[in-house]
Backbone:
């Protein structure tokens, strides 16, 4: 079913794609309108940490390029989490909800609320973001222990982001 939804997203406009493929738990509030859909390709950066006496890989930040439908880079996604459009406008987000569509192979799909804006530009009026169609990005399979404490690993991922105003 997910592959069929991905095909629909490629063939149909972003508005239809958003209505068809977004699970109820991560739909933006009523009145939100999609203004841009981009494809992200990059890494999720994890660090080996000791939390409550247990060693584990903790996500630190994304590091991804954002591509338009022609495959041109239109922005970046990095620590914050921050999304930056090519003309310099930025948004900072906070995760409101998530859905694990394929927990054994992909990071969660998200609903993100924009909590800060920087610059005047395309992202100036963005209020919510969805991360959907994820692939990869899960914590590393390698061991995290006292020998690796503080060490970082980059795990490739792809996703689609829908920006709403």
Residues:
């Amino acid at each position: 079913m997910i592959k069929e939804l991905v095909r629909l997203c490629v063939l149909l406009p972003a508005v239809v794609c958003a209505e068809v493929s977004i699970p109820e738990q991560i739909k933006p509030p009523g009145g939100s309108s999609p203004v841009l859909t981009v494809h992200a390709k990059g890494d999720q950066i994890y660090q080996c940490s000791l939390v409550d006496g247990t060693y584990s890989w903790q996500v630190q930040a994304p590091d991804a390029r954002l591509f338009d439908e022609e495959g041109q880079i239109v922005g970046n996604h990095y620590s914050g989490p921050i999304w930056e459009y090519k003309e310099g406008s930025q948004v900072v987000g906070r995760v409101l909800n998530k859905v694990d569509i394929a927990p054994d192979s992909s990071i969660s799909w998200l609903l993100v609320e924009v909590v800060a804006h920087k610059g005047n530009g395309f992202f100036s009026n963005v209020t919510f973001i969805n991360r959907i169609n994820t692939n990869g990005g899960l914590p590393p399979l390698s061991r995290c222990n006292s020998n690796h404490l503080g060490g970082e690993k980059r795990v490739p991922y792809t996703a689609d982001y829908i920006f709403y105003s």
Summary: DSSP finds two helices and eight strands in the chain. Helices lie at 2-11, 14-21.
